[in-house]
Each structure stands twice: as structure tokens, then as C-alpha cells.
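$ fold --in a.seq
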Amino acid sequence: MRLPPWLLSDRAGLVLLAILAIIGVGVPVLNLLAPPDHPLHLTAYTVTLLGKYLCYALLAVAVDLVWGYMGILSLGHAAFFALGGYCFGMYLMRQIGTRGVYGDPVLPDFMVFLNWQELPWYWHGFDLFWFAAVMVLVVPGLLAFVFGWFAFRSRVSGVYLSIITQALTYALMLAFFRNEMGFGGNNGLTDFKDALGFPLQADGARIVLFVLSTLALAGGYLACRWLVSTRLGRVLVAIRDSEDRARFLGYRVEKVKALVFTFSAMLAGVAGALYVPQVGIINPGEFAPLNSIEAVIWVAVGGRGTLVGAVVGAVLINYAKTWLTGALPEVWLFALGGLFVMVTLLLPYGLIGLLRRREATA
């Protein structure tokens, strides 16, 4: 099969897709077929950890699309990630049924504990997988479209837009902490049993979720790479470089921004939906502004405006976070802040930009 020109010219993207294909096959093989005492055996914990990294990488790609190619520094993409996670978490909660602590066939345990008498209207339909899958896209996308439509029509940009996006995710975090919202309050949604009739704790289910995360990342990358290679992608770069000039040339800048911002939010929602069944919980802490800031740091470290760099940065930093929070938990935040400052001063184009400059001078 002949590759399209926009992908054929993307050497870094082809390498990324090849790596994803290798781990998409290799990880299941090493987990299911290699004996537990074999040095190459991957435990279920490792599979879940790698799956989390892939979900974070998809979130980073979504952030890079709007920041790297449109100049919108979003500090609120954690909100879209969390909303996608809550949508799928609601489906998983509805699948528990009578197996919950209180044995109610309809109401989740936390609603029974809070003396709720009936299921809220916005929980209806989430017992159906297809409905939950649609909501994973619709809810983050709708919020992003409404927010973006008003913000971009008002020509809010720069640091002001970044502050507003951070205020959005912080407001959602405070709202979801309230028991009256009907989403589990501080504890969130947890104690998931199965999805589509398959137990989530089974090795096979973990492998399926990992493979789905791999495919989602590959699909999200390809979609974004195709988008930025089209005429619309060139318009995005024109808006990033000089929004006033793009508007003077006749482009409806606010519509373009709203469209791409919505698409980016939907990608983040998919990442959140795949993240939840692998970690087994979703709570308001996922809305924390720090999570959005971390996603921006992933992109900055890997290389803004490259897409591949977003994946590299997300995986490397989260691996470092896993190691440091176990070995030196008290220094993790200082290390993260120092890394961002160092990259800003010494590597403004990130790791991918550094590699490209070396290739150009070689």
C-alpha cells in the first residue's frame, strides 16, 4: 500500500508509528506468552503503566495541536480529559448493578449512601456502551465549542485566554467535588467491575485496553498530522504567526479556532476514556490545573509544533515522574519546574527541535 505524501515525508512520524506497532504486538506477547519467571516477562502492572503513558501521550498530542500549530496556550485541557473519563466511568458504574456494596440494581453505591431516591436524568443512557462512547466525544467537544465560540468571537487571546482556560478547569474541579453534582464527590467513580461483559481485572482485558490505547494514539497522531498538512493546517500556522493578517486576508479566524479547539478537546476526551478503566478510578483531582500545566510541559520538552515531540515528552516525563515519586517523592515538583525552566532557556524547540538542528548541521 502506497503511503500518502503528507505521511511519507514525515520521517519522525513513521518512526513513531513503527514503534507503536512494535509495542502494540510485543507488549501483549511478553505479558501473555512469556513465563512469569522469564526476564522479559511484563507484569500486569507494567502493562497498565504503559497504557497510562499512551493515554497521556494522546492528551499531549491534543495540546500540541492547538498550542504548537494555532498558538493557543490552553491550560485547561485536563478538563476535557477528565470529562471523557467521567463519561466512560459513568458507563462502568452502571455495569456494576447488584454487585455493589448496597446491591441496588440501578443506583451507584455513592447515591444510595447519600439517600438519593432515583437516578438523575443525566445518568440515563449510560448503561449503553455506544451511548457512553458518543458522550466521550460530545461532552468535551460541546464544552470546548461553546467556550471557544464565545472566547474567540470576543478575540480573547494570549495570556488572558490561558488564564480563562485554567479558570474553567478549576471551576469544574470545584463543582465535581460537590456531592450534589451526582458524580461521587470527592471520591469520584471507582470499584469498576467489567466492560461489555469482560472483567477489567483480567489479563486479557488489560491487554485489550493497552492495544486500544496504542491504536487511539496512532489514530490521533495520524488525524492531527493529516490536518496540519492540509490547507486548513496552513491557515492554522498563519493564525499562529499573525492572527490580524489572517483575518485581513478574509479567513474567519474565530470559526477556525473553534473548530480545531473542539477537535482537540475530543481527542483529550478519548484519552481520558481509555485512561479510566486502566487506572480504575476517576475523581475531581483529574481537573486540577496542575495536570493541564504538566501537559503543556510535556509538549514543551518534546518539541512544540511537532506532534511527535508531544508523544516523546509525555512518555519521558511520566516515566521520570514514576521513578522520582517512588525514589524521591519530595523533589518531584521541583524537578518538574526546573525542567520547564531549563527547556525554556536552553531548548526552546524541545528535544525534537534539537535533533532536527543537529541533522541540519551534520
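$ fold --in b.seq
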Amino acid sequence: MLRGFILLVSLFVFGAMAQAEEVTYRKHIKPLFDSKCVACHGKDSAPEYYAFKEDKDKWMSKGQGMRMDTYSHLVFYTAWPDTGALMRRLDDGTAAGKAGNMYQYLGSKDEERQKNLKLFKDWVGNWTMKRWKDITKEDMDKIKVKY
């Protein structure tokens, strides 16, 4: 009886671990980004950060944002140097009271947007709205952004 109980608990624990798959850029974020974001933030449509900043009004009038279609581009807007930018733009506003300007593009219905936002949150780890000047080393250590 004890053996059966231990086996049952072991199966439950290992099953739960298997379902708690780590979110990675390659497997989860890149496909999501390609389906929802690349039209405005891809290499064929969007400028690099500093080019965008030089002529922001021009790019905004075209409905284009900064280029974010690679892992290193997304890390730029997540961890450093534009810390928290991705989070501020994708956030649903639950904590801040106002949704980010890109939240609406995560899906056609709120259920889909919430599911996709959760993927981004799980990928980032420390979903912070803080900017570089305000973030602590402890905050940075909690940002995961696994490739």
C-alpha cells in the first residue's frame, strides 16, 4: 500500500513537472511574435531603435514601431538598455491601471490576449515596468528571457 502511494505521488510530481515547460524565445516567443508583431516590428518594415528615435513622427505616421524581430532586439527592450519597454507596451494594465499601447495586438479577443500575454510574462520572468535608471540588480537577476 505504501509503495502504491509513493508511486502515485511520484507520477503526479513528474507529470506536473512535465507540464511546467519553460517558455523560450525559439519555441514560444518567436512564433507568437511572427504571427502578431512582425508586420510592424520586423526587419522589412521597422527601423532600428536610434533611427526610429531620430524621426519618430515619420515612423509613427506610417504605423511602424522599432525593430524587434530577433532575440537580441527583444532583450534590448526587456532587460537592457531600454529596460521594461516591452513590458510597458504589452501589459494589460491590471497593475498600472492602463493597458500598454500594444496589448490590443496580442489577439482578437481578450482570452487570446491574456494567453499570449502570459507567454510573454513567463518568458520574461520579472515583468517590471521599471526603466533602467530605476531597476535594481535583484530585479535584473529575475529577468529570464531564455533563448
